[in-house]
Amino acid sequence: MRDYCIKTATPDDLDGARSVMLDTVYRDFGTGYVPRWHRDIVDLDGAYLTPVRHTLLVAVDERDGSVAATAALDSRGPAHPPNPRHLAERYPSGVTAQLRRVYVRPGDRRQGLARQLVGRLLDFAATAGGYHAAYLHTDPTVPGAEAFWRSLGKAVHDEREEPGGQGTLHFEVPLP
Known about the structure:
Low-confidence stretches: none
Oligomer: single chain
Order of helices and strands: EHHHEEHEHEHEE
């Protein structure tokens, strides 16, 4: 098993974090970079490092210093549209800790990194205060994504059950 250092990202980690994120949206999601969905990836500092109640965590491989995994949290609830109105109302911005960009490079998967990162995000939300819920959405076609999130939280909406739905699966994860 490899050794990783899980930490809050610094400006020196942003290129490596961005690489993990872009590789994921191209390889796993097949969408590539879509500005309206992935704008935060371009400005990680403005999205996660500068705002006080936001954070970006990285898992750094101690062998070579490369970023192996990422996880972020911000205070923006799911927007409507594209998300269903009832989710935007249930998880409003400002009091919702939205978990984002929980991505692990393929060669570093099955090491427990995502679970550790999510645990640290939830601890951050509890410490930051003012958050009433932790929310996320995932693409259930990504191998392992649905099972992983079901092990941590409760599905609150499954767009696969809607006619013409995008297939996105929405979760709430308990705050500590």
